[in-house]
Write a structure and sequence with these properties.
By secondary structure, the protein is of the alpha/beta class. Helices cover 51% and strands 9% of the residues. The strands form two sheets. A six-stranded mixed β-sheet has the order 4-5-1-6-7-8, sandwiched between helices. α4 crosses α5 and α15 runs parallel beside α18. The radius of gyration is 29 Å and the shape is globular.
């Protein structure tokens, strides 16, 4: 008993006996021991704090619907996310619309520069005496000489304004188109953090169009430069010979090119403010993951949604797997209009075939075996136009055979192909909700999103054993 008093510990506890200080402990040793014990307590408390924080996050996640937007690049994922935010986070969406002005102007200028690049290619082909070269007289060459220096400078200035460094801006170099695949110019991109910073810097009534960094270009200067040559741009876009050249060369402009060219007068006024439709059609590729929390139901007790856009190019798909954990729903975008296009990253691969391969891989994933699958057969508007223009589906998709070259038949065939993948590849039986969409159509997409929301919430409650 006396021994326990001396050591100030419970002698019946073996651990206490082992860790007890020596009875002959000096003052220096005591100070060192107490310092070690204080550090150990600090580390233990940090670990406890991390555990509590992790539990809080997990508890929050249990009350949150996690949704992944998946699909190849340019399938419509970002546009779908914009539709979600426009409908379910309206106030924040309106605040951010002004930030898209620079992106819209960049889309317009890049499309115009792509046409001018095609002129350069035609000139080279004409010099080499190629049979399929268009013959352009001085009338068209004057357009190129007037427009190219101005628009290339504006394009570079807008890229810098959006966060690109001078050494990241490459001079445009026209390249020959790839056989059977519409040619697209290299895509401009920014990092998600850079884009968020740009949005914050362009919000609020104090924004004057002048960037915080004085050496960056002014949005109004770029607008004025384009406005000074808009008549030339409009003349080129409406020229039948130019349109014939683009078609024959299979040069693919951005899907939104015609929309912005037709709206050029509205876009180039000094007090222009982007509309919902403008922002939906504006394209800006962002690296890294984009995520947004939304409240999709007026019921305060309803769970929030966290939607992830994880990127779709081949170089970004390795980042998908970590997001498969605890996901409630996958919305997969399959652009069925791309039956005649090939991947930018690998011109040997048909884009529609690549989309189907991706879909099969998602259906096969055991991590997603109980995840709600939602499929958007997207870009119906573009598919309809291609069919009207007489493009034959079976030329690019031999398995389509001799079926009628009609939009309804193409959709029916492709819907079944994707349904078969769910049935054949899923680890366990499940249903898949399939919608035909044109996500740039805000009215019909709004109806689709309500249906998607209701279906996902029913599945969420069922998974939580609350249904």
């Amino acid at each position: 008993m006396a021994l326990g008093v001396i050591f100030h510990h419970d002698t019946t506890d073996p651990l206490a006996v082992i860790t007890a200080p020596s009875p002959n402990e000096s003052a220096h040793e005591k100070a060192a021991r107490e310092e070690r014990e204080a550090e150990a307590r600090r580390i233990s408390e940090l670990i406890d704090d991390e555990i509590r924080a992790e539990r809080a996050v997990r508890k929050k996640e249990q009350r949150m619907v996690k949704v992944l937007l998946l699909g190849q690049g340019e399938s419509g994922k970002s546009t779908t996310l914009k539709n979600f935010r426009m409908q379910f986070a309206r106030d924040k969406w309106i605040e951010e619309r002004v930030s898209w002005r620079a992106v819209i102007l960049l889309n317009l200028v890049r499309s115009a520069n792509t046409i001018l690049d095609a002129f350069s290619q035609e000139k080279d082909d004409e010099q080499f005496g190629l049979d399929d070269a268009f013959t352009f007289d001085d009338y068209y060459r004057r357009y190129r000489l007037r427009l190219s220096p101005v628009l290339q400078t504006v394009e570079n200035n807008l890229k810098r304004l959006l966060g690109a460094k001078p050494d990241e801006i490459e001079l445009r170099k026209p390249t020959r188109p790839i056989l059977l695949s519409p040619r697209t110019p290299p895509e401009f991109f920014v990092r998600s953090r850079t884009w968020r910073n740009f949005i914050q810097s362009t919000q609020g009534p104090e924004f004057s169009g002048c960037p915080a960094e004085q050496d960056l270009p002014n949005i109004f200067d770029s607008t004025e430069a384009i406005a000074n040559c808009k008549d030339d741009i409009k003349a080129l876009w409406s020229d039948d010979i130019v349109q014939a050249m683009l078609a024959k060369r299979r040069i693919r402009l951005e899907d939104s090119a015609s929309f912005f060219f037709d709206a050029i007068d509205r876009l180039l006024v000094r007090d222009y403010e982007p509309t919902d439709d403008d922002v939906l059609r504006a394209r800006l590729r962002t690296l890294d993951i984009q995520e947004h929390e939304l409240r999709v139901d007026d019921d305060a007790d309803a769970p929030k949604w966290k939607i992830f856009d994880v990127g779709g190019s081949r170089t970004q798909r390795h980042a998908w797997l970590p997001y498969f954990d605890r996901v409630n729903a996958v919305i997969f975008l399959a652009p069925i209009s791309c039956f005649d296009e090939r991947l930018t990253e690998d011109p040997r691969v048909n884009r529609l075939e690549d989309s189907l391969i991706l879909w099969r891989a998602i259906c096969s994933s055991r991590l997603l075996s109980r995840t709600i699958l939602i499929l958007f057969l997207n870009k119906m508007d573009i598919l309809e136009k291609k069919i009207r223009d007489g493009i034959m589906v079976n030329r690019f998709l031999p398995s389509y055979g001799h079926r009628p070259n009609e939009t309804s038949e193409v959709v029916k065939y492709l819907r079944q192909k994707f349904k078969d993948a769910v049935r054949e590849r899923s680890p366990e039986p499940r249903t898949c909700h399939i919608y035909t969409t044109s996500v740039t159509d805000t009215k019909t997409t709004a109806v689709t999103l309500i249906s998607v929301r209701d279906g996902v919430l029913r599945g969420y409650l069922k998974q939580a054993d609350l249904f």
